[in-house]
Amino acid sequence: MVPFAGYLMPVQYPGGITAEHTAVRQRCGVFDVSHMGEFEIRGPDAVAFAAHVTSNDVRALAVGQVQYSAILNSRGTIEDDCLVYRFADRIMLVVNAGNREKDWRVLRATLDASPQRFDCTLTDESDAIALLALQGPEAQRILQPLAETDLGAIRYYWFVEAMVAGVPVILSRTGYTGEDGFELYAPAGDAVHLWDALTRSREVTPAGLGARDSLRLEMGMALYGHEIDDTTTPLEANLAWIVKLKKGEFVGRDALVAQKAAGITRRLVGFTVADRAFPRQGYPVYHGGESSGLVCSGTVSPTLGIGIGTCYVPVDVAIPGSGLEIEVRGKRIAATIVQMPFYTRK
Fold first, then answer.
1. Disulfide check for 219: which of 31, 178, 298, 317 has CB 3.0–4.6 Å away?
2. Is residue 49 within 8 Å of residue 41, measured between CB atoms?
3. Are residues 124 and 6 in the same domain?
4. CB of 98 within 8 A of CB of 90?
5. Residues 339, 95, 161, CA angle at the centre, nearest 5°?
6. Which residues, in sequence order, are bridge partners of residue 72?
7. What phi, psi does 194 have (nearest 5°)?
8. Can you give the CATH number for the domain in which 138 is found?
């Protein structure tokens, strides 16, 4: 257990990170990610406000649909990445725990600065909501007996409101592992009951932050504070697909339009190393003998058995097959830029 953003979080359970990682890839694991933040936007202009403060096109969402997006600043850099849930009567933004207070200040300041423009209210529901993530190829089969809804009818990045193990939940087909699975938002007071119901099956392995990190990295998924932060733009981080410049005005749009016109100078890439060297975050990266930044994330992939990682390199270097060197404990190890994701599920 480690302190994180005001919470005590499990890095691993007694079985260990590799066993948890493998369980999610092959069977099913469950994560307690109740530390995530949830903001609700209600009122006639809830959709318009959400579209103004996020980079993706909220207006394009149908009721019951989820969207990956980003909260930007006027420089076009990333304050946080988030999920946007569109309900019939509200919008829910799911934000990172470490950025919850900052995100709240940013959104609150934006709303307060435009009281006549946006007729809506913003509330922080984070402490009232627990979040469990059931992930893996067997997730639907294991969860279905507990759910009073047809899980097969829930498409990827869609959600329903349903009863699971007698608990009212927001049940979405989303996750941060690259596997099939569901995220269950429940009243905080029901979290223990829901956890016990999910883990009653011996097929479900409790998994911690260590496995969550190695699973998302194998999929090339960005983690705030590693691949993305307030010094990076979505265009540099291969997240141009969550930026809808044609939707109209939004926070950060002008900066991104200018950057796109000028052209980016660096790009996020994935790399592999030939042996089992461990490319940790912060290790120096070199190209052609010259310094080329630092490793953003790195590990030895439990699935692939090789070292994998991410870093930023100049755009003319960001080509699959290009060679890099990673300095590991004073020794430079050969690495190769590869197309992400590193792992593709069957």
1. 178
2. yes
3. yes
4. no
5. 100
6. 78
7. -65, -45
8. 3.30.1360.120
In a domain, 121, yes or no: yes
> Which residues sit opposite 137 in a β-bridge?
none
Total tally of structural domains belonging to the chain: 2
pTM above 0.90, yes or no: yes
- Looking at the fold, whether 78 and 18 belong to one and the same domain comes out as yes
Rounded Cα distance, 151 and 139, in Å: 10
- DSSP letter for 136, please: S
Beta bridge partners of 84: 67, 93
Same domain, 313 and 204: no
Domain stop point among 196, 216, 236: 216
Paired tokens of 93: 């933004």
Residue 248 CB partners (closer than 8 Å, separation 6+): 51
The span from the CA of 150 to the CA of 162, in Å, is: 10
- Residue 306 sits in a domain of what CATH number? 2.40.30.110
pLDDT tens column, 61-78:
999 999 999 999 999 999
How many other CB atoms sit within 10 Å of the CB of residue 171? 24
- pLDDT exceeds cutoff 90 at 253: yes
What distance in Å separates the CA atoms of residue 223 and residue 225, rounded to the nearest whole number? Answer: 6
Q: Which residue, among 29, 15, 34, 22, has the nearest Cα to 198 in the 3D structure?
A: 29
Tell me, what amino acid is at 246? K
Rounded Cα gap, residues 268 and 235, in angstroms? 9
Q: Which two tokens stand for residue 308?
A: 């994998």
Q: Are 96 and 36 in contact (CB under 8 A)?
A: yes
The distance from CA 92 to its chain's CA centroid, rounded to whole angstroms, is: 15
Q: Are the CB atoms for 168 and 185 separated by under 8 Å?
A: no
Residue 181: closest CA among 205, 217, 209: 205
Q: Spell out the long-range contacts of 111-119 with Cβ–Cβ below 8 A and sequence spacing 24 or more.
A: 111/49, 117/45, 118/43, 118/45, 118/48, 118/49, 118/52, 119/43, 119/44, 119/45
Range of the domain at 37: 2-216
Three-state secondary structure call for residue 131:
strand
Region 65-93 average pLDDT = 98
Please give the backbone phi and psi of residue 188, each rounded to the nearest 5 degrees, phi first: -55, -35
The residues with which 172 forms a beta bridge, in sequence order, are 159, 183
**Which tokens sit at 291?**
């310094």
Count the residues in the chain: 346
Can you read off the two tokens belonging to residue 322? 């290009």
Which band of pLDDT confidence, cut at 50, 70 and 90, is reported for residue 201? confident
